Amino acid sequence: MSLNTEKSASVSEALDTRITVRQFLDKPVPEGVLRSLLEKAMRSPSGGNLQPWKLHIMTGDTLEAFKKEAVEITLAGKVEEPTHPAYPSPLWEPQRSWRYKLGEDMYALLGIPRENKMGRLVWFAQNAKFFEAPVGIIITGDKRLGAPQHMDIGILIQSMMLLAREAGLHTAPQGWWRNWSSVCHKHLDIAETDEVMVGMAIGYGDPDANVNNLYADRADLDEVATFYS
Ligand SMILES: Cc1cc2nc3c(=O)[nH]c(=O)nc-3n(C[C@H](O)[C@H](O)[C@H](O)COP(=O)(O)O)c2cc1C
Question: Please, what is the average pLDDT of the chain?
Answer without folding.
Answer: 97
